[in-house]
Structure formats: structure tokens, C-alpha cells
Fold this sequence. Notes:
This protein is of the alpha+beta class. The protein is built from 2 helices and 3 strands.
Amino acid sequence: MTTPKAHWSEKEQQYWIRDLNGGVLWFDSVLDAQAAARQIEIDTAVKAREALIAEWLRKHGMRQVAMMLEREEHLK
């Protein structure tokens, strides 16, 4: 596994990464920035997998289950 990229800002004297919406997240520690970047990568992979599962469920006649997955009702 590669280490996620954390950028250093001379002006702010902090590390930064981009979030999923293109915003900037600031950190005092490079390890914190890398951990947050890694979590963003994991969250992105999980969302992609959930989308594939929902598509498969719909394809096999389980539309309601797919909708529950998309609404994250299994987490409530």
C-alpha cells in the first residue's frame, strides 16, 4: 500500500490534503494528514463497492434492498 500524499504549505506552516468535494483539510502533523487521506481512499472504495452491490441487487430483482443500501438504512 502506498502512503497517501500530504502537501506542505510554507505560508500556513501546515500539511494539507484535498477532501472528496475538492475542499482543503489542514493538519499540524504529516501522520494525521496521511491517516485522513488514507481514510478518504477507504471511504471512496467502500462507496464504489456499495454502488456495484446495489446495481447487482437491482439487476436481480431486489430493488427495495438496493434502495435500503443506498439510503444506508443498514447503518441506522
